[in-house]
Design a protein that fits this description.
The chain is 36% helix and 15% strand. By secondary structure, it is of the alpha/beta class.
Length: 274
Protein backbone atom coordinates (compact mmCIF):
# COMPACT_ATOMS: atom_id res chain seq x y z
CA UNK A 1 0.00 0.00 0.00
CA UNK A 2 1.19 3.51 -0.83
CA UNK A 3 -0.24 6.40 1.15
CA UNK A 4 0.04 10.05 0.18
CA UNK A 5 -0.03 12.32 3.22
CA UNK A 6 -0.56 15.94 2.33
CA UNK A 7 0.34 18.89 4.50
CA UNK A 8 2.74 21.71 5.25
CA UNK A 9 5.74 21.95 7.56
CA UNK A 10 3.87 20.64 10.59
CA UNK A 11 3.12 17.36 8.82
CA UNK A 12 6.76 17.05 7.75
CA UNK A 13 7.89 17.67 11.32
CA UNK A 14 5.57 14.94 12.60
CA UNK A 15 6.85 12.44 10.01
CA UNK A 16 10.50 13.13 10.76
CA UNK A 17 10.04 12.87 14.54
CA UNK A 18 7.63 9.94 14.69
CA UNK A 19 9.16 6.68 16.00
CA UNK A 20 6.73 4.78 13.76
CA UNK A 21 8.46 6.03 10.60
CA UNK A 22 11.60 4.04 9.74
CA UNK A 23 13.02 6.15 6.95
CA UNK A 24 12.68 9.63 5.47
CA UNK A 25 13.48 10.61 1.89
CA UNK A 26 13.64 14.32 1.19
CA UNK A 27 14.13 16.41 -1.93
CA UNK A 28 14.50 20.13 -1.44
CA UNK A 29 16.87 22.91 -0.51
CA UNK A 30 19.88 22.59 1.77
CA UNK A 31 18.55 24.52 4.78
CA UNK A 32 15.41 22.39 4.99
CA UNK A 33 17.50 19.26 4.50
CA UNK A 34 19.52 20.10 7.60
CA UNK A 35 16.30 20.41 9.61
CA UNK A 36 15.04 17.09 8.27
CA UNK A 37 18.30 15.31 9.16
CA UNK A 38 18.34 16.85 12.64
CA UNK A 39 14.75 15.78 13.28
CA UNK A 40 15.31 12.28 11.90
CA UNK A 41 18.32 11.83 14.17
CA UNK A 42 16.07 12.05 17.22
CA UNK A 43 14.76 8.56 16.42
CA UNK A 44 17.80 7.30 14.47
CA UNK A 45 15.94 7.14 11.15
CA UNK A 46 17.58 6.31 7.88
CA UNK A 47 17.65 9.40 5.66
CA UNK A 48 18.07 9.83 1.92
CA UNK A 49 18.27 13.37 0.58
CA UNK A 50 18.73 15.11 -2.72
CA UNK A 51 19.35 18.77 -2.01
CA UNK A 52 20.44 21.88 -3.86
CA UNK A 53 23.02 21.98 -6.62
CA UNK A 54 25.26 24.46 -8.37
CA UNK A 55 26.75 21.94 -10.73
CA UNK A 56 29.59 22.55 -13.19
CA UNK A 57 29.50 21.72 -16.89
CA UNK A 58 33.03 21.76 -18.29
CA UNK A 59 33.70 22.19 -22.01
CA UNK A 60 37.30 21.53 -23.08
CA UNK A 61 38.87 22.92 -26.23
CA UNK A 62 38.64 19.58 -28.08
CA UNK A 63 34.92 19.13 -27.44
CA UNK A 64 32.21 18.89 -30.06
CA UNK A 65 30.86 22.41 -29.68
CA UNK A 66 27.36 21.69 -30.96
CA UNK A 67 26.98 18.82 -28.49
CA UNK A 68 28.28 21.01 -25.69
CA UNK A 69 25.85 23.80 -26.57
CA UNK A 70 23.01 21.25 -26.55
CA UNK A 71 24.04 20.14 -23.07
CA UNK A 72 24.31 23.70 -21.79
CA UNK A 73 20.82 24.50 -23.03
CA UNK A 74 19.40 21.23 -21.69
CA UNK A 75 21.20 21.72 -18.38
CA UNK A 76 19.77 25.20 -17.86
CA UNK A 77 16.51 25.59 -19.75
CA UNK A 78 14.93 22.12 -19.55
CA UNK A 79 11.80 22.41 -17.38
CA UNK A 80 12.62 26.15 -17.29
CA UNK A 81 15.60 25.49 -15.06
CA UNK A 82 13.70 23.89 -12.19
CA UNK A 83 16.03 20.88 -11.90
CA UNK A 84 18.40 20.47 -8.95
CA UNK A 85 21.13 18.73 -10.99
CA UNK A 86 21.29 21.42 -13.69
CA UNK A 87 24.74 22.43 -14.90
CA UNK A 88 24.28 26.12 -14.22
CA UNK A 89 28.00 26.96 -14.08
CA UNK A 90 29.18 26.43 -17.65
CA UNK A 91 33.00 26.49 -17.82
CA UNK A 92 34.21 26.94 -21.42
CA UNK A 93 37.85 26.76 -22.48
CA UNK A 94 39.04 30.20 -23.55
CA UNK A 95 40.19 28.98 -26.98
CA UNK A 96 36.65 28.03 -28.06
CA UNK A 97 34.70 30.55 -26.00
CA UNK A 98 33.78 32.89 -28.86
CA UNK A 99 32.53 30.10 -31.12
CA UNK A 100 30.67 28.45 -28.25
CA UNK A 101 28.90 31.70 -27.35
CA UNK A 102 27.96 32.48 -30.96
CA UNK A 103 26.26 29.12 -31.33
CA UNK A 104 24.68 29.23 -27.86
CA UNK A 105 23.13 32.65 -28.37
CA UNK A 106 21.92 31.85 -31.89
CA UNK A 107 20.24 28.61 -30.83
CA UNK A 108 18.73 30.10 -27.69
CA UNK A 109 17.24 32.93 -29.74
CA UNK A 110 15.87 30.71 -32.50
CA UNK A 111 15.05 27.39 -30.82
CA UNK A 112 13.29 28.27 -27.56
CA UNK A 113 9.49 28.25 -27.79
CA UNK A 114 7.78 29.39 -24.61
CA UNK A 115 4.03 29.23 -24.16
CA UNK A 116 1.08 26.90 -23.62
CA UNK A 117 2.39 23.59 -22.23
CA UNK A 118 -0.29 21.65 -24.12
CA UNK A 119 1.10 22.88 -27.45
CA UNK A 120 3.50 20.27 -28.88
CA UNK A 121 5.73 23.07 -30.22
CA UNK A 122 6.30 24.51 -26.73
CA UNK A 123 9.64 23.56 -25.17
CA UNK A 124 9.89 26.14 -22.41
CA UNK A 125 7.29 26.60 -19.68
CA UNK A 126 6.38 28.83 -16.76
CA UNK A 127 7.88 28.78 -13.28
CA UNK A 128 5.93 27.25 -10.43
CA UNK A 129 4.63 30.47 -8.82
CA UNK A 130 4.71 34.24 -8.91
CA UNK A 131 6.83 34.23 -5.77
CA UNK A 132 9.44 32.04 -7.40
CA UNK A 133 9.34 34.10 -10.58
CA UNK A 134 10.24 37.17 -8.54
CA UNK A 135 13.02 35.29 -6.75
CA UNK A 136 14.58 34.36 -10.10
CA UNK A 137 14.25 37.93 -11.36
CA UNK A 138 15.92 39.18 -8.17
CA UNK A 139 18.88 36.87 -8.83
CA UNK A 140 19.15 38.27 -12.35
CA UNK A 141 19.28 41.78 -10.92
CA UNK A 142 22.03 40.67 -8.52
CA UNK A 143 24.02 39.33 -11.46
CA UNK A 144 23.79 42.65 -13.27
CA UNK A 145 24.60 44.61 -10.11
CA UNK A 146 27.71 42.48 -9.43
CA UNK A 147 29.11 43.09 -12.90
CA UNK A 148 28.09 40.12 -15.03
CA UNK A 149 27.06 40.84 -18.62
CA UNK A 150 23.46 40.00 -19.45
CA UNK A 151 23.92 38.47 -22.90
CA UNK A 152 20.41 37.14 -23.39
CA UNK A 153 16.99 37.31 -21.75
CA UNK A 154 16.70 38.40 -18.16
CA UNK A 155 13.09 39.61 -18.10
CA UNK A 156 9.64 38.34 -17.21
CA UNK A 157 7.66 37.24 -20.25
CA UNK A 158 3.99 36.91 -21.21
CA UNK A 159 3.67 34.67 -24.27
CA UNK A 160 0.39 35.12 -26.11
CA UNK A 161 -0.60 31.49 -25.72
CA UNK A 162 -0.14 31.54 -21.91
CA UNK A 163 -0.37 35.15 -20.70
CA UNK A 164 -1.13 34.16 -17.11
CA UNK A 165 2.01 32.04 -16.67
CA UNK A 166 4.95 33.06 -14.50
CA UNK A 167 7.56 33.04 -17.25
CA UNK A 168 11.16 34.24 -17.13
CA UNK A 169 13.08 34.45 -20.39
CA UNK A 170 15.96 32.00 -20.88
CA UNK A 171 18.83 34.01 -19.43
CA UNK A 172 22.54 33.84 -20.19
CA UNK A 173 25.22 35.71 -18.25
CA UNK A 174 28.79 36.12 -19.45
CA UNK A 175 31.83 37.84 -17.92
CA UNK A 176 31.03 35.96 -14.72
CA UNK A 177 33.39 35.36 -11.82
CA UNK A 178 33.31 32.54 -9.29
CA UNK A 179 32.44 34.81 -6.38
CA UNK A 180 29.26 36.27 -7.92
CA UNK A 181 25.97 35.37 -6.26
CA UNK A 182 24.62 33.87 -9.47
CA UNK A 183 27.61 31.51 -9.53
CA UNK A 184 27.40 30.57 -5.86
CA UNK A 185 23.71 30.09 -5.07
CA UNK A 186 21.12 27.78 -6.58
CA UNK A 187 18.60 29.88 -8.52
CA UNK A 188 16.29 27.06 -9.68
CA UNK A 189 15.33 28.93 -12.81
CA UNK A 190 16.49 29.44 -16.41
CA UNK A 191 19.68 31.32 -15.61
CA UNK A 192 23.02 30.19 -17.09
CA UNK A 193 26.38 31.55 -15.98
CA UNK A 194 29.18 31.11 -18.52
CA UNK A 195 32.77 31.26 -17.28
CA UNK A 196 36.09 30.72 -19.06
CA UNK A 197 39.15 28.69 -18.05
CA UNK A 198 42.61 28.02 -19.46
CA UNK A 199 43.77 24.65 -18.11
CA UNK A 200 42.58 21.44 -16.51
CA UNK A 201 43.91 21.98 -12.99
CA UNK A 202 42.35 25.42 -12.84
CA UNK A 203 38.89 24.30 -13.87
CA UNK A 204 38.87 21.32 -11.50
CA UNK A 205 39.69 23.59 -8.57
CA UNK A 206 37.01 26.09 -9.58
CA UNK A 207 34.39 23.44 -10.29
CA UNK A 208 34.94 22.03 -6.81
CA UNK A 209 34.64 25.44 -5.17
CA UNK A 210 31.00 24.99 -4.15
CA UNK A 211 29.02 23.76 -1.17
CA UNK A 212 26.41 22.12 -3.38
CA UNK A 213 28.21 19.84 -5.83
CA UNK A 214 25.32 17.59 -6.80
CA UNK A 215 26.29 16.63 -10.38
CA UNK A 216 28.86 17.41 -13.04
CA UNK A 217 29.39 17.23 -16.79
CA UNK A 218 32.56 17.04 -18.87
CA UNK A 219 32.79 17.55 -22.63
CA UNK A 220 35.95 16.32 -24.32
CA UNK A 221 37.01 13.87 -27.01
CA UNK A 222 39.93 12.66 -24.86
CA UNK A 223 38.79 9.55 -23.00
CA UNK A 224 41.64 9.68 -20.52
CA UNK A 225 40.95 13.30 -19.68
CA UNK A 226 37.24 12.66 -19.26
CA UNK A 227 37.80 9.88 -16.73
CA UNK A 228 40.61 11.77 -15.00
CA UNK A 229 38.56 14.94 -14.55
CA UNK A 230 35.23 13.40 -13.60
CA UNK A 231 36.89 11.33 -10.87
CA UNK A 232 38.40 14.47 -9.36
CA UNK A 233 35.21 16.49 -9.33
CA UNK A 234 33.72 16.50 -5.83
CA UNK A 235 30.12 15.69 -6.59
CA UNK A 236 28.81 15.50 -3.05
CA UNK A 237 29.61 17.85 -0.18
CA UNK A 238 28.00 18.76 3.12
CA UNK A 239 24.32 19.37 2.62
CA UNK A 240 23.96 17.62 -0.71
CA UNK A 241 24.45 13.87 -1.02
CA UNK A 242 26.57 11.77 1.24
CA UNK A 243 26.95 8.20 -0.01
CA UNK A 244 29.24 6.75 -2.66
CA UNK A 245 26.19 5.19 -4.31
CA UNK A 246 24.76 8.63 -4.90
CA UNK A 247 28.16 9.86 -6.06
CA UNK A 248 28.19 7.23 -8.78
CA UNK A 249 24.60 7.97 -9.72
CA UNK A 250 25.22 11.70 -9.97
CA UNK A 251 28.31 11.55 -12.16
CA UNK A 252 27.57 12.01 -15.82
CA UNK A 253 29.99 12.37 -18.70
CA UNK A 254 28.72 13.82 -21.94
CA UNK A 255 30.93 13.29 -24.94
CA UNK A 256 30.82 12.52 -28.62
CA UNK A 257 32.87 9.37 -28.02
CA UNK A 258 30.63 6.24 -28.09
CA UNK A 259 33.42 4.23 -26.47
CA UNK A 260 33.48 6.51 -23.45
CA UNK A 261 29.71 6.52 -23.25
CA UNK A 262 29.68 2.72 -23.19
CA UNK A 263 32.43 2.49 -20.57
CA UNK A 264 30.90 5.03 -18.26
CA UNK A 265 27.35 3.70 -18.52
CA UNK A 266 28.20 0.82 -16.16
CA UNK A 267 29.13 3.02 -13.22
CA UNK A 268 27.92 6.52 -14.03
CA UNK A 269 24.76 8.13 -15.32
CA UNK A 270 25.63 9.09 -18.89
CA UNK A 271 23.90 11.95 -20.68
CA UNK A 272 24.33 12.63 -24.37
CA UNK A 273 22.11 15.52 -25.45
CA UNK A 274 20.76 15.61 -28.97
Amino acid sequence: MFNVVQGAGDVGAWLTHSPDIAKVSFTGEVGTGRKVMTAAASTLKDVTMELGGKSPLIVFDDADIDNAVSAAMLGNFYTQGEVCTNGTRVFVHEDIYSEFMDRLLERTLNNIRMGDPTDPDTNFGALISQKHQQLVLDYIEKGIAEGATLSHGGKAAKPGSAPGGYFVEPTIFTDCTDDMTICREEIFGPVMSVLTFSDEEEVIDRANNTDTGLAAGVFTNDIRRAHRVIHRIQLASAGSTATEHRLRKCRWVATSSPVLAARTAESHSTTTPN
